[in-house]
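User: I'm new to structure prediction. If I give you an amino acid sequence, what do you actually give back? Let's try with this one:
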Amino acid sequence: MRNLVGQHAAPVVDLLSCTNLEGVDHCLGFLGSSPDGLGLDPRALGNFYFLVLRSGVTPDTRSDAGRPGARIKA
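Assistant: Good question. You get back a string of structure tokens that encode the predicted 3D arrangement of the chain. For your 74 residues, that looks like this:
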């Protein structure tokens, strides 16, 4: 898994939130091209999140994750 530190927070948090509630296929359809800006395979990223979500992992962001320009800190 690629290090997400420094990536824009919005697509990461959106995918993380969605896969917490729905399946990966639904989320990728729902989010459209939003995760594409990460430069990662959105399916691999969605599957990764689906597997680790049960551990309670959440990304730490610089500023509010919903604000434009917010980035992953840890």
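You can read the tokens as a compact description of the fold. Here is one thing that stands out. The two ends are 14 Å apart (CA to CA).
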